[in-house]
Amino acid sequence: MNLCGYYPESINEGEGLRASIFISGCRHRCKGCFSPVTWNFNYGEPFTLQRQNEIIGDIARNPLLSGISLLGGDPFFSAAEVSEFLDRLYAQAGAVNTWIYTGYTYEELTADPLAAEYALLRRCHVLVDGRFEEALRDTSLRYCGSSNQRLINIPASLASGKVELWEPTVRF
Amino acid sequence: MALLQPTYEANEHLLREMIAVGEDIIDSKDLDLIRENANLNGESFSGKMSKLGSEYAKWYAKHFIMPKSVVRAIEENYVYVHDLDQYAIGTTNCIFIPFDKLLGGGFNTGNGSVRPPNSIMTAMALVAIIFQSQQNAQYGGVSASKIDHDLAPYVAKSFSKYFRKGVFYFEEEDGAEPSDIHMSNFELQLRYPKSFRYALKETEAETLQGAESLIHNLNTMSSRAGGQIPFTSINYGTCTSPEGQMVIDALLTATMQGLGSGETPIFPIQIFKCKQGVNQSPKDPNYALFLKAAECSAKRLYPNFANLDAPLNLQVYDPSDPDSEFATMGCRTRVLSDRFGRNKLSGKGNLSFNTLNLVKLGIEYGTALGKRKKADEQGFYHALDHYLDIALDGLLHRFDIQRRQKAKASDFMMREGVWEGGEQLAPDEPVGDLLKHGSLSLGFIGVAECMKALYGRHHGEDEQVFEKAFRLIAYMRAYCDRKSDELDLNITLFATPAEGLSGKFTKRDRQYYGSLPGITDREYYTNSFHIPVYYEIQAARKIRLEARFHDLCNAGAISYIELNGNARSNPAAFLSIVQYALSQQVSYFSINHPIDRCSACGYEGIIGSVCPSCGSHEEDVHIRRLRRVTGYLTGDFQTRFNSAKQAEVRDRVKHTP
Q1: Nearest neighbour of A62 by CB, restricted to B295, B540, B573
Q2: Which of B156, B235, B483, B505 is the most core-located residue (most Cβ within 10 A)?
Q3: What is the nearest CA distance from B653 to chain A, expressed in angstroms?
Q4: Are strands B269-274 and B232-236 parallel, antiparallel or unpaired?
Q5: Pairing of strands B604-605, B595-598
Q6: In Å, how far are B35, B42, B51, B229, B645 from B639, measured between CA atoms?
Q7: What's the superkingdom here (chain B) (predicted)?
Q8: pLDDT digit string (tens) for B21-37?
């Protein structure tokens, strides 16, 4: 698994100040994708255990973070490894709120409860789902790129068995 | 006044100097001279006229008025005397205006007298007039420390007026006692539902309109040469009466709506006063207004946030007196404490300040020049003492000139008692001892470069160096405290808002010492104790490191975080950063984020070279890029900032990508 980007603090990929972690590799190939170079699974640097621990340390030490965001590429193409990273993160940094971005839909990810994708989904809190649709691009949207994409409250959706949308905790 | 050595050569030299000053201004040759102050249009006729006067006044002060040791320290680049053009004539710097007193008793501008207002609309209009009248009696900023408390009575007057109208038109039974007519009287609301509702709605509308007119006035009334508008600041946030809340709400709404075409107002700079139990958690009465202030700040770059709970500010806080609440000039000036007992804001201000070039001292006694392996700390502190003494001598000498000025020289300020006690002076009487309630401040710039020059690393890079930096500023504060006692004056330590100064020391130090990496190789020195803008550091750590200095700087300090990205769309992030800074005892805080405006379509947000809304390119259409310098905003930084500040803005590392 390769890392193709890391911002220790960002306000652009989810509510609050978040550490944003970009995992290389994506096969959705959406037209108009903002960084097609990250489709390549070999792009970026190897996300070694040492690098993971550095980032986990950053997150644990930063009192201002509201959580982390996993993006790519698409982290669901490396679902099992990303799950391992999250387990390590939660063990060392405690309860961290996790947003995850994907080109898959919630329905696709929940189709097989035994799959690695489902296991990863289960570890996260907010899912930004759906492929980027260039025709539906809208720069005024918060935290996503095209209007087909949804911000889904994962625990609530898994509990109720239907898609429950995420609601902001602070509004202006 | 005669020259000390009136030789032919000396006279020739003086004449050449004077001619060069004039030529630089008239031909707009020296852009940095002309853009020394970002709010002055130095390329306009009136700006040039003012500049000519100002440059001659500086020249005159240096050659004929000031102590020689101070002039030498200026010439050798160790000390900077701010607003030198005002030195010889004894003008004072800034003031907090007692609006409650002026509005409540009426006032005279010198050209005509004004009755106390009977509505919030008129009161807001008079606030602008008072700001403008006072501005002409001094050279620095004018501030309202508690505008919500000051204006609340006029909201009440408007409400009462509308309520009586309502009773008449709706023919509800007349009989309410005048003292019963107020917005929080629930019984009145039950007995006169129509009149009450009407009065409330009309008062709300009038307050908003008043706030709009105030903001428009303060952005349009050029009252100084060079198209400068008064440097106005308004502080608010703690008045919990429904009238006061209405004032705060209206000011925020009007600010968010912006000026005529929706653009961000530059003045008044606004400061929201944060206090636990008043506006910091959801159960607090003004919490909703704090949220609204954060929203406004995410949209317009201000309000900035003043921390009433910081230890320095809590010392004199008296919950029953809003004038004891910490407030500031937009630039960061703090004049709250007074050794003569006026531990409140209105009616006094800062008198003047001088800034020390810490970097030069660092270079001379540090390792940067390669002359020694270890910093000569003893030499450094010895020299520091020497230049602190000289800078203080300059302040005291100037204070003596200020004290000797007649009351009529700062006519409005004294006659109307804007400076407390001034109203008791005869026009020809010197202001004398009245000024002792103000502060004389010693400032500093470039702690980061100073540390780099002394030890090879700055205070953001190394914990031991941080402790050295902290010790240095604590040492300077102790000096100020000691001198306050010895001289029985308010001598305070200032984290200088270096705007004109930011590049001046640097330019000359570079000429002298060459380009030293991390020290003189940029166009500016880092502001006060700030971690350098180009240094990559996480927001929380920057806040924690800088917070420790706030408590030392009793003449004022500010800290910033730079956000990249649209702050408007992530309220949670914005709020958490502000509240974290407050929790770390930062006294005065703000978040910088880019606000660009496309002049073709009016889109506001982050604009690269191409407007995301209409597709115009910056080469074809002017993109106005608003940035903050000293605490104030300026217009477009690319046309108004001097080169040093432009370079600083370009170098700023965003604490979030």
Answers
A1: B540
A2: B235
A3: 12
A4: parallel
A5: antiparallel
A6: 9, 11, 18, 17, 11
A7: Bacteria
A8: 888 888 877 777 767 66
